[in-house]
Design brief:
The chain is an alpha+beta fold and about 160 residues long. It is built from 5 helices and 5 strands; from the N terminus they run αααβαββαββ.
Length: about 160
């Protein structure tokens, strides 16, 4: 019984000392605690509480950074149609359908040519025209314009 009381009293004293030093450390009154003692206190508190507040903040910051990087990557990979150019392409003579869109560092133009409507040479000129116009508008992006008729690629212009 006497031994149990000594152990209990020792444990209580240790907890009180750690509590007082920990309180001083976390409330900013730690200027009077030598650095070596601070490290011991911090390690002891870390051992008792598991993850520290600093570790939690670091993990949270890393998580936010990864989420931001993921959001930026998703934004870069998002397909955005250039409605003005798409309408312009669709109005061209001999074009059945078409689309102009951006994705990341690329601008793509597609043209579906009506059967027997314009010659292959005219298709290439039209594709070249739009490739040049798109490159003028999107200077810092790679441009690709393709024209297809009956499943056959008649033009594939890259700038």
């Amino acid at each position: 019984m006497k031994q149990l009381n000594k152990k209990s009293i020792t444990a209580i004293i240790v907890v009180v000392i750690i509590g007082v030093i920990g309180t001083m450390y976390f409330t900013g009154r730690n200027s009077k605690i030598p650095q070596a003692d601070k490290n011991i206190v911090v390690r002891t508190i870390d051992n008792l509480t598991g993850k520290t507040e600093r570790e939690n903040k670091k993990v949270e910051e890393e998580k936010k950074k990864k989420e931001e990087e993921k959001r930026k990557q998703e934004e870069a990979n998002k397909v955005n149609q250039d409605k003005n150019f798409t309408e312009k392409v669709k109005k061209e003579n001999g074009i059945l359908d078409g689309q102009v869109y951006t994705q990341g560092d690329y601008v793509c133009g597609t043209m579906l040519i009506k059967e027997n409507s314009i010659s292959q040479e005219e298709v290439k000129k039209l594709a070249e025209k739009y490739a040049n116009e798109l490159k003028a508008k999107y200077k810092n992006k790679k441009v690709n314009v393709q024209a297809v008729q009956n499943g056959k690629n008649l033009a594939n212009i890259t700038k």
